[in-house]
Amino acid sequence: MVKVAVVEGDGIGREVVPVARDILAAVRPDIEFFDVEVGYGRWERTGSACDEETIAALRSADAILFGAITTPPDPGYRSVLMQIRRALDLYANVRPIRGEGVDVVIVRENTEGLYSGIEWTEPDRACTVRVVSRRGSERIARYACTLAKSRRHLTVGNKANVLKSDCLFVEACTAEAARAGVPCTFCYIDALCLDLLMHPDRYDVIVTTNIFGDILSDAAAYLVGGLGLLPSANIGEGHALFEPVHGSAPDIADKNVANPIAAIRSGAMLLSHLGDPASAAAVEEAVDRVLRAGIRTPDLGGAAGTREFGAAVLREVGRG
Amino acid sequence: MVKVAVVEGDGIGREVVPVARDILAAVRPDIEFFDVEVGYGRWERTGSACDEETIAALRSADAILFGAITTPPDPGYRSVLMQIRRALDLYANVRPIRGEGVDVVIVRENTEGLYSGIEWTEPDRACTVRVVSRRGSERIARYACTLAKSRRHLTVGNKANVLKSDCLFVEACTAEAARAGVPCTFCYIDALCLDLLMHPDRYDVIVTTNIFGDILSDAAAYLVGGLGLLPSANIGEGHALFEPVHGSAPDIADKNVANPIAAIRSGAMLLSHLGDPASAAAVEEAVDRVLRAGIRTPDLGGAAGTREFGAAVLREVGRG
Ligand SMILES: CC(C)[C@H](C(=O)O)[C@@H](O)C(=O)O
Ligand SMILES: CC(C)[C@H](C(=O)O)[C@@H](O)C(=O)O
Hints:
Chain A is built from eleven helices and twelve strands. Chain A is α/β, with parallel strands linked by helices. Chain A has two domains: 1-90 and 236-320, Isopropylmalate Dehydrogenase; 94-226, Isopropylmalate Dehydrogenase. In chain A, the strands form two sheets. A ten-stranded mixed sheet of chain A has the order 2-1-3-12-11-4-5-10-8-9, with helices on both faces. A two-stranded antiparallel ribbon of chain A has the order 6-7. In chain A, strand 6 (119-121) and strand 7 (125-133) form a beta hairpin. The longest helix of chain A is centred in the middle third of the chain and has 16 residues, at 134-149. Chain A is globular and about 50 Å long. Chains A and B meet through strand 7, helix 5, helix 6, helix 7 and helix 8 of A and strand 7, helix 5, helix 6, helix 7 and helix 8 of B. Strand 7 (125-133) of chain A pairs antiparallel with strand 7 of chain B. The structure holds 3-isopropylmalic acid (2 copies). Chains A, B: It comes from Methanoculleus submarinus.
């Protein structure tokens, strides 16, 4: 039996996650789902967006299906997503970007770099320590190399011309790529952002540090028309969280217009991660068939609602 | 009399800078130029790419016309450009990006952030301190607000949802924008990279911290087909350096094929900075007329050489 924690979160998370969950349930009746409440809504009601008990519940799951969270306008508030990534040590943020002429996977180190949390304020300046550890670099390099080995090649996004801390990262990637026998090239992150946009066909798997990956993956989303359809995975040892890249979009919430594709595709990544690539492929293909049949939510120019689109995918999955 | 230091640097810097210099000399016969040797060529010959004496010479100039420098494959080598920016405290890196539907100026803080140089290596990790100072934030905010006041509005690129050090930056920009009466909005740097690509018309002046500006300006260059034609300014108190955004491109050097437009436009920014917007406009317009006449270097599909393109601009400037 497989246990999947479901975190709807806020806004459209509460509409797209149930759709994805129903599809997972259809292809894998053995999954036991349990809900975990986290986010802004909970914070408004209880004063806490996420606590130790929540983390323990998430920790007990084989995988987490995650929606999106609204950030409260409270300066003291810490991102729940960051809290969870850190608590479960979800070190690999994986963002596949596929479209016309684009088939790239961005693998972002997800626990350190500028997200170290080591920060202080002096009277006249504020400092954050960018931490690049050997262990952190090696494990993300290993993850990216394993992925690149089953694909084509690896590009290491870095800024070692300015940051000594990136020399360690580059070294670790060089060593892992050699060990794995993966062709590997290096590119400064600024130049990489531009070149990925100009020549997406030159890239396959890209590995980089935390905030560079954060920025690069948003820039790369331009190649497929924005964040709307992109899934992502946050992978650790024994824990993994799957989430659409888009946010909670409170402005369009509760209108049955949100596009559930990113959430459904995140569900497919979850199935793959659970060792069931066949079900993952079945879900992916069902989405593609529904799109080819011309069924679309309003953001793609269609008239289908969130639920209707989900029902159509569910039908196709049954047929597949 | 105005003193302009000329740093050709390496590669195509040695071809495009003389072209720009001749054009400046034509519109402003009162400029006294003097050469300063800096870069890889010098490093190969003398073991030093730039020293105190060089810095003193650059410091004595009213403005610096700069080409491009090849980075030697020496891990101990420090970027000469970074050295000069720091020594002359060139705190504002200004990159105008203009094209079909795009008229944006990126103002990047150029002296601190992740470029603090405060770095250390421990046995198992390497650290870099990102420093955001109140003074540094206030002066770049003031620079950006002054610019935005003569244009339309300001966007502040930041990552204050993750980095406490960016709260200080956001605060400083908020205060300066209020003081200057400039409409000001805030955007997380990852979302900004994507939204600038998707909706360039929504942006005017963008101010951000050092490495975010480095990455954002490369991504934005996609909107105008790459770095090739983009000029930039590095501005301090009493010192200023103007350089094409492109590099030294050793692969195409010494072939009379490099496009000198970015260098010429950097020259126009230099004239503006010296308080001569009329001459700056004359140079800009001369370039536009030459392009309209169909004279182009090979990168733009033409057959004109670097020198021939320069000569054509020189003729137009004479006519203007
Ligand atoms: C919401 C924010 C903390 C987060 C990040 O910076 O990692 C987001 O941008 C992302 O990419 O998942
Ligand atoms: C060459 C490098 C040190 C430099 C930087 O990072 O500032 C370059 O990318 C730039 O944008 O001028």
